[in-house]
Amino acid sequence: MNNKTLAILKPDCVKKNLIGKVVTLIQKAGFKVSAMKMVKLTPDAAKGFYQIHKDRPFFNDLIVYMTSGPCVPIALEKENAVEDFRKLIGATDPAKAAEGTIRKLYADSIQENIVHGSDSNENAAIEILHFFSRKELPDINGF
Ligand code: CMP
């Protein structure tokens, strides 16, 4: 189960017309796009997805931001997917992200940071199933 991760191109990525550029970087880094859709999260769906952060001071702002427009969840496959994807996107805070990473290139702030990546193999499976039914994952191993 170390071959999958969930990316979300967040509302700032969609608003800035960066879907194509970011997907190109992801594919050039060797990830296979296994499932992808555009959705506008409801407050309940965003709260469910970010439950782990419910007690953090930025939680309410995060929910407002994540429901401010459509986003693009993407199920990705690659060997060592979780770790390699987090390297590709860079640190949560773009000011601390390494040169060449997606957040360094395109993100404006620690909140509006363009893209989400799962933080563990266990969460990758949970997060992929948050957005995609098993029927929508025809080719992905392990589901
Ligand atoms: P993500 O990797 O999706 O995980 C939680 C999100 O909360 C994070 O990206 C940011 O969008 C946001 N976030 C994390 N830390 C902060 C913070 N200190 N201030 C504001 N937003 C944050």
Structure description:
The protein is an alpha+beta fold and 143 residues long. The protein has one domain (4-136): Nucleoside diphosphate kinase-like domain (Alpha-Beta Plaits). The protein is 38% helix and 14% strand. It has helices at residues 11-15, 19-28, 43-49, 59-66, 81-89, 102-106, 121-131, and strands at 4-9, 32-36, 72-77, 115-117. The chain has a 4-stranded antiparallel sheet with strand order 2-3-1-4. The N and C termini lie close together (10 Å). The structure holds adenosine-3',5'-cyclic-monophosphate. The site of adenosine-3',5'-cyclic-monophosphate has 8 residues, from loops.
| CATH class identity | Alpha Beta
β-strand percent reads 5-15%
N-to-C CA distance = 10 Å
List the ligand species: adenosine-3',5'-cyclic-monophosphate
Mean pLDDT: 95
| Count of distinct strands | 4
Shape: globular
Oligomer: single chain
Alpha-carbon Rg, integer: 14 Å
User: How many helical stretches?
Assistant: 7
Helix and strand composition category:
alpha+beta
Summarize the structure.
The protein is of the alpha+beta class and 143 residues long.
Indicate the topology.
Blueprint: E1 4-9, H1 11-15, H2 19-28, E2 32-36, H3 43-49, H4 59-66, E3 72-77, H5 81-89, H6 102-106, E4 115-117, H7 121-131
Antiparallel strand pairs: 1-3, 1-4, 2-3
The chain binds adenosine-3',5'-cyclic-monophosphate (CMP).
